């Protein structure tokens, strides 16, 4: 699934990725958007069941 690169809120995309059952969730981006996406993934618990790259 793709997400808008400059989106300020990736919560809905991360929750869909979490619910998808995928083993790996890849986050493509840079700067603040990437940092916030990784932080949000950690807050939602993606790292417990899935690999975040």
UniProtKB/TrEMBL annotation:
Keyword Membrane carried by entry: yes
Organism annotation: Neoroseomonas soli
Transmembrane segments: 20-38
Record's keyword terms, sorted: Membrane, Signal, Transmembrane, Transmembrane helix
Family: Belongs to the leucine-binding protein family.
UniProt entry tagged with the keyword Transmembrane helix: yes
Record's protein name: ABC transporter substrate-binding protein
Domain Leucine-binding protein: 2-51
